[in-house]
Amino acid sequence: MDITNKINRILNEVTMKDIPKEFMGDPLYKAVFNAKDQKSYDKALKTLLSIRGRGAVDALKHAMGKGKK
Fold it and tell me: Which pairs with CB-CB distance under 8 Å and at least 24 residues apart come from 14-23?
């Protein structure tokens, strides 16, 4: 699955309160979560993935899974 689609699916399934605090405190993730339009979202996502790599999605998914238990 394409990494962008994977992130989109995660974000569509959650609300802001579901996102762990450590990710909201990270400016790279926060820019993705708070993007106001598609252009700013795409830019923030590209920046996040270029700095944090493909593991960024898995880390978020893992952290969110721990929060729901």
Answer: 14/64, 18/64, 18/67, 18/68, 19/60, 19/64, 20/63, 20/64, 20/66, 20/67, 22/63, 23/60, 23/63
Write the CB contacts of 40 (distance below 8 Å, at least 6 apart in sequence): 31
Cβ neighbours of residue 60 closer than 8 Å, sequence gap 6 or more: 7, 10, 19, 23, 29
The count of other CB atoms within 10 Å of the CB of residue 57 is 20
Q: What is the pTM of this model?
A: 0.68
User: pLDDT per residue over 9-39, tens digit each?
Assistant: 766 666 667 777 888 889 998 888 888 888 9
